[in-house]
Design a protein that fits this description.
Elements (H helix, E strand, L loop, with lengths): L7 H12 L3 H14 L4 H13 L3 H14 L4 H13 L3 H14 L4 H13 L3 H14 L4 H11 L11 H10 L10 H11 L2 H6 L7 H11 L3 H9 L5 H16 L8 H16 L8 H19 L6 H8 L20 H20 L1 E2 L6 H12 L17 H6 L17 E5 L5 H9 L4 E6 L2 H13 L5 E5 L14 E5 L8 H10 L7 E5 L7 H12 L6 H13 L6 H5 L6 H8 L9 H11 L11 H5 L1
Parallel strand pairs: 1-4, 2-3, 2-5, 3-4, 5-6
The structure holds S-adenosylmethionine (SAM).
Length: about 625
């Protein structure tokens, strides 16, 4: 027993009161105890934590200082003090104390993590990344550090060798809900080039047409888990890799009957097949390849008819050129266990979506001509196609979320619903609706879209992620009022600018707001940001190019091979690496663009108050 501290029973009693949040009672009780134990570290510390909860940070600060004066090795005291300095926006002090904690106890992983958060707050993302990596080195089960790492990676490009990072990037790509792989794709690419032998291996492709070289390349790529996983979850936005993959695919097809069934081939081809499925078979193919694939198809069909065994390598090759769901006999194939993933992605998912589609209710028949054309585009090419996404670490009340945002709003005067009803107008393939559903506690979401195929994709993904608070519904935003429903929050991103009359659509959304405290999040195309795209769109319109996959692939290839640097921005866009993305980016049936003054005049006309841009750099970029 420590004579400076109250008994263990007393301490347990105090902790229990703390867990019940009985703060007033606790303060009284601990003040009494302090008379008998004036040097108790425990009592000063718990009082500091109580005052932190009560947001009385200066009071809490003094109490934590007292604890470290009483014991200069009391790590919790330094840690709590650092947290308080962070809350008081005294970042340098917070850094000093987190560093002190780490000096005293390197295994105090939360100090590494919180130190990373401060560096991130200061815009020092490289230092933040190092801190998250050391957090994970000490405790690889601390999920929050992965969420933080994922955010920091979105604002920084890895530019130095660090072999340690690959296992964490791999983890991020394997997790379904921590990060959108697209948003860290550049870092995955950097890390693959810096921290694996990828570049060397790919240079061998110059002489790929020997079985020996193909074996060497396959042994290396087939044993690169980060690359293989990346190919399974993200259309890879890199033309250099695309060209290499096209060469490899062609060479495997050339040598298909000369190859042994080595595991590495299967592993690589599974990833390549999924990559091609994700990018909607955007890779160019030669006449010779088309002929060879046709022969393979005939062979599989004949083997199926004659009850002969189907060769895995043939199925894999075929699935790198076409979705198996488009091939009439593919449902007769008895897939081996090794090809389970291919079966799931090429066939089962589509099957499930068709089933789901029948369960989606419509609000009305689409009448507006532009809406009909837009619907048609997204029925053919649901967009965006995604695999994993970044959800909030935990859901919070609407008031908490708004409170922590930078909105130009006196949130204290507004009472937000505890069970907000939220409309996602134009939910597409669900990424947006699912993200919002995970952000707000007790939210009830209605997700509307014109396109059944997009909605089916969205609902399949929501089912897979066990998200149950979203109702998906098909219809035109123009017919929303027929639902007779009001919402606390309406979000519509990337939608109004595809309508015949965006302002008309916006008015309808406004009429669906519940009352004066309801909010709206709107995402619109910027005239300035899309200048370069307008030039290309004009070219496409003048040439009357129809937006079918063949034309899209050909047009894209011409752009990729042009040396004109004007198109560099477009080539860098992740959208440029899937067919539906290119269609959305360059071949859209309808698009309007907005300037800030146009938005301002619309807001005036609608009687809406502007609360701020989500992206704070937008004003700088638009001037
Ligand atoms: C570019 S996607 C954006 C999807 C989603 N908001 C996101 O951010 O991922 C645009 C979506 O808006 C839908 N859309 C466009 N006009 C619409 C309308 N009048 N009514 C309902 N949905 C519409 C399209 O069908 C398409 O799925």
């Amino acid at each position: 027993m420590n004579p400076q501290e109250p008994s263990e029973i007393k301490i347990k009693e105090l902790i229990s009161l703390f867990n019940k949040k009985k703060f007033d009672e606790l303060i009284k009780l601990t003040n009494d105890i302090l008379i008998q134990y004036p040097n108790s570290i425990f009592i000063h510390n718990i009082q500091g934590v109580i005052y932190t909860e009560l947001k009385n940070y200066n009071f809490a600060k003094d109490l934590f200082i007292k604890t470290i004066n009483l014991n200069p090795k009391f790590t919790d005291g330094y840690y709590n003090l650092a947290n308080i300095y962070n809350k008081l926006d005294k970042e340098d002090k917070a850094i000093e104390y987190y560093e002190k904690v780490i000096e005293l106890d390197y295994n105090y992983f939360k100090a590494h993590n919180n130190l990373g958060n401060i560096f991130r707050k200061k815009g020092l993302n490289n230092k933040a990344i190092d801190c998250y990596l050391s957090t994970l080195e000490v405790n690889s089960n601390y999920k929050l550090a992965y969420y933080n790492l994922a955010v920091a990676l979105q604002f920084y490009t890895i530019n130095r060798e660090n072999k340690n990072i690959n296992k964490h990037l791999l983890y991020l790509l394997k997790e379904k809900i921590i990060v959108r792989p697209n948003s860290i794709a550049n870092n995955i690419l950097s890390s693959l080039f810096l921290n694996t032998d990828l570049k060397n291996d790919l240079s061998l492709i110059k002489n790929i047409n020997s079985k020996k070289n193909l074996n060497i390349i396959m042994n290396s790529l087939g044993n690169n888990p980060l690359l293989l996983q990346f190919m399974k979850v993200c259309p890879i936005p890199n033309y250099y890799l695309e060209k290499k993959f096209i060469q490899i695919r062609k060479e495997i097809l050339n040598q298909i009957y000369k190859l042994n069934f080595e595991k590495v081939y299967i592993k690589f081809l599974i990833s390549l097949s999924i990559q091609c499925y994700l990018n909607e078979f955007i890779y160019e193919k030669s006449e010779e390849e088309i002929k060879k694939i046709k022969k393979i198809k005939e062979k599989i069909k004949s083997n199926l008819n004659n009850n002969k065994k189907i060769n895995d390598l043939e199925i894999l090759c075929l699935s790198c050129y076409e979705p198996l769901s488009d091939i009439s006999f593919s449902n007769k194939i008895n897939f081996s266990n090794e090809l389970n993933e291919i079966f799931e992605i090429h066939l089962k998912q589509k099957e499930r979506e068709i089933e789901i589609s029948e369960s989606i209710k419509s609000i009305s028949i689409v009448k507006n001509k532009v809406s009909k054309n837009v619907k048609n585009q997204y029925e053919e090419n649901p967009y965006p196609r995604w695999v994993n996404l970044g959800l909030s670490f935990e859901s919070r009340n609407m008031s908490q979320v708004i409170n922590e945002s930078d909105l130009n709003l006196d949130f204290k005067k507004i009472k937000f619903s505890e069970n907000p009803e939220i409309l996602i107008a134009g939910c597409g393939t669900g990424q947006h609706a699912i993200t919002t559903a995970s952000k707000y506690k007790n939210a009830k979401i209605l997700a509307l879209d014109l396109s059944f195929t997009s909605l089916s994709y969205a609902k399949r993904k929501a089912n897979e992620l066990k998200i149950e608070n979203i109702d998906f519904i098909q219809g035109d935003l123009l017919d929303l009022e027929s639902l007779n429903r009001k919402f606390d929050l309406i979000e519509s991103v990337g939608v109004l600018h595809h309508m015949d009359e965006p302002l008309k659509g916006w008015k309808i959304l406004k009429n669906c707001l519940r009352d004066n405290s309801s909010l709206m999040v709107i995402g619109l195309y910027s005239e300035k940001a899309r200048q370069h795209i307008t030039q290309i769109k004009n070219k496409i319109t003048n040439l009357k190019i129809k937006p079918n996959p063949e034309n899209i692939i050909k047009f894209r290839k011409d752009l990729l091979e042009s040396n004109n640097s004007r198109w560099d921005n477009i080539k860098a866009s992740p959208d440029f690496y899937t067919v539906s993305g290119v269609r959305d980016l360059l071949f859209h049936v309808k698009e309007h663009k907005f300037t800030i003054s146009k938005i301002k005049s619309h807001l005036n006309e609608l009687g809406l108050f502007f609360l701020g841009f989500e992206d704070k750099l937008i004003i700088e970029r638009s001037s």
